[in-house]
Amino acid sequence: MTVTPLLIGIDIGGTDLKATLTDPSGQIFIEISTPTLDIIGRDNSQVWKASVKRLIDELERKASGPIAAIGISTPGTVDHAHSHVLSNGTKMLGIEGHVWNDYLDRPVFVINDAHAALYAESRIGSAVGYREVVMLTLGTGVGGAILLDDKIYQGQVGRAGHLGHMSVNDDTLLDIVKTPGSLEDAIGESTVKLRSHGKYQTTKALVQGYQDHEPFASWVWLQSIRALSRGLISLINILSPELILLGGGITRAGEALMTPLESFMELYEWRPKGHITPVHLAKMGNSAGSLGAALFAWDKTKGR
Question: Which is nearest to 82 in space by CA: 258, 231, 298?
Answer without folding.
Answer: 298
